[in-house]
Amino acid sequence: MTDFRKSVIYQIYPKSFYDSNGDGWGDLKGVTEKLDYIQKLGVDYIWMTPFYVSPQNDNGYDVEDYYRIDPRYGTMDDFEELSREAQKRGIKLMLDMVFNHTSSRHQWFQKALEGDLKYKNFYIFKKGQEKGVPPTNWESKFGGSAWEYVESFDEYYLHLFDVTQPDLNWENEEVRKEIQKIVRFWMEKGVKGFRFDVVNLISKGEYLDDHEGDGRRFYTDGPNIHKYLKELNETTFGTDAEIITVGEMSSTSLESCYRYAGEDEHELSMVFSFHHLKVDFMGNEKWVMVPFDFKKLKKILFDWQTHMAQHRAWNAVFWCNHDQPRVVSRFGNVEKYWKKSAKMLAAVIHCLRGTPYIYQGEELGMTNADFTDISQYKDVESLNHYQILQDKGLSEDNAKRIVQIHSRDNSRTPMQWNSGGNGGFTQGSPWIGCNKNCSWINAESQVEDEDSIFTFYKKLIELRKQYDIIAMGDFEPKAQEHPAVFAYKRYYEGKQLYVINNFYGNEVCWDAGEELEGYVCLLGNYDRQEIKDREVTLKPYETMILYKE
Ligand code: GLC
Q1: Is 287's C-beta closer than 6 angstroms to any atom of ligand 1?
Q2: pLDDT at position 1 over 60
Q3: Which atom of ligand 1 is nearest to the CA of 408?
Q4: In what order do the strands lie in the sheet with 316-317?
Q5: How many secondary structure helices (H) and strands (E) does the chain include?
Q6: 225-235 helix and 173-188 helix, angle to the nearest 10 degrees
Q7: What residues contact residue 251 under an 8 Å CB cut-off, 6+ apart?
Q8: Substitution site in 47, 48, 61 for ligand 1 pocket (most atoms within 8 Å of beta carbon)
Q9: CA-CA distance, 11 to 330, in Å (whole number)?
Q10: How far is the CA of 62 from the centre of ligand 1 (A)?
């Protein structure tokens, strides 16, 4: 059985990873060409975001055909080659499965629109409350109503995301059977991991107006969700002990995650939750400009660590993905302590109890996009909200500044391979602009450099393989009330790991409340071998991973 606790997963957004044929789009051959780089980092799995046939309104999360590869990414032969070449290097593939919705161009939806009742029942069509009033007041996650009117039926269909992403009706057993078929198809291709997109939204509850919010409480962690996940597990990936799974859980609760990722629940191996990445929101409102709340960040991560452990459930741990701003721009300090802060943030995540995910370019300390004009943005969510913010009365400039902070495109700019044109991503013209800082942030300059962010990530991965305590240890929060220190301990078979971090750019003094003598420093971002006292002065963005047998 694969021990996913000891694994590290590297996320690839193929469209922005490496373009092998000069059309400005990353492709599967491009991933194959860069496998040596990924192997060098030392990861066990590659999670690939969707490369299926898609009109790309949501960059592939709008799937038109689950069985075919979008020609812009390559062919099935390219996929099989990638799979073989990855396997040679001891790397397994994890695919992204988008089953909350399809693209409106999917043949199921096309047939539904033609009035074929079998397929109409694959989706969620409802009558309006009255003329011009949708069935409920729910909002789409990308802005606006979650319902779209179809005149020929005088009915609306539900789309929790873009209007071109109609939600599937999981209540319909035929839908579930089709989905099982898709998962088995990719299992037969040798895929050993699956990431299920917004999977805790698949079971809708009652269709009622939400007088307190945007409707999410009616469909998040819905009434039949555990039944559906158990069924999917039993009929597909659960039959292969080698396969690992992760569910993307939107606005979920701890209680639900005990079950989604519980050791004996037979649902999923682990979960992504996002509460720790909403500490620069105002409540649930993402499109605002507020500084991040450090104490809240710490409390959320600590709560998830301790409670998931108590319930024998497993976390995916991460800062970055294709929907999040770059962490070094978000919680670090690019101007003054770029390298130090990127390393500190890496250590914080990689020593937690959970399976760490690295998003392409994170291991280089890639930063947010440097776009100055709104026309440089491509993401549907960003563009919708840019408009919504102005409709609410914000100036163009303020709306743009908010987009610059929160846009998902911050993570979607091309991977920076070298300091050449377009960061070495493409010989052509890239589908989205490359950050000019590829002149100094790039793979070529870091891979062989002992002091680079890349090498630091590599060492973190090595530590996980070498010291069982990182994967297996119990978790204890430390310095809970401290305004700058992020510290915790891990315990395993009489050994101790002490992870101490300064989250800010000033020196801070911290009293650990216990002797720190006797620990050796396994890894840090300053030159520190050991600590003599219980009191320690931490340098700006200092991190240290201490260990005692
Ligand atoms: C997930 C994906 C995101 C996508 C959304 C709808 O959150 O990560 O990129 O837009 O689901 O599929």
Answers
A1: no
A2: no
A3: 9
A4: 270-272, 244-248, 193-196, 92-97, 45-48, 9-12, 355-359, 316-317
A5: 17, 20
A6: 40
A7: 216, 220, 274, 284
A8: 61
A9: 19
A10: 9
Question: CA-CA distances (angstroms) from residue 104 to 57, 97, 101, 121, 379?
Answer: 10, 17, 9, 14, 18
Q: For the chain, percent helix, then strand, then coil, each to nearest 5? A: 35, 20, 45
Q: Which structure tokens are listed for 309?
A: 């452990």
For ligand 1, pick from 216, 323, 378 the residue to mutate: most ligand atoms within 8 Å of CB: 323
Q: Around 356, how many Cα atoms within 13 Å sit in the side-chain half-sphere?
A: 27
Other beta carbons within 10 Å of 118: 11
357 φ, ψ (degrees, to nearest 5) = -115, 135
Ligand 1 midpoint to CA 509 (Å) = 41
pLDDT of residue 531: 84
d(CA 427, CA 21): 8
Q: Which atom, in ligand 1's list, is nearest to the CA of 100?
A: 12
345 vs 358: CA distance, rounded Å: 12
306-346 residue pLDDT tens: 999 999 999 999 999 999 999 999 999 999 999 999 999 99
Sign of the alpha-carbon dihedral angle for 59, 61, 64, 66 = positive
Rounded CA-CA distance 380/395 in Å is 20
> CATH assignment of 1-98+316-369+411-466?
3.20.20.80
The domain covering 473-548 belongs, at the CATH homologous superfamily level, to Golgi alpha-mannosidase II (2.60.40.1180)
Domain ranges of the chain: 1-98+316-369+411-466, 107-158, 473-548
Q: Would you state the structure tokens that stand for residue 444, as one six-digit string?
A: 């070529």
So what's the pLDDT on residue 528?
A: 86
Please report which confidence band the pLDDT of residue 533 belongs to, taking 50, 70 and 90 as the band edges: confident
d(CA 312, CA 108): 39
Q: In one letter, which amino acid is 471?
A: A
Q: What is the Cα–Cα distance from 515 to 533, expressed in whole angstroms?
A: 6
Q: Which of 168, 194, 198 to mutate to test the pocket of ligand 1 (most atoms within 8 A of CB)?
A: 198
For the stretch 16-35, pLDDT in tens is 999 999 999 999 999 999 99
Q: 197 in ligand 1 pocket by Cβ < 6 Å? A: yes
Instruction: Please tell me the pTM assigned to this model.
Output: 0.97
Distance between start and end Cα atoms, the chain: 28
Decide whether any atom of ligand 1 lies within 6 Å of the 317 Cβ. no
CATH 3.90.400.10, applies to 107-158:
yes
Beta strand 125-126 with 155-158 is: antiparallel
- Compute the C-alpha angle 426/432/438, nearest 5°: 60
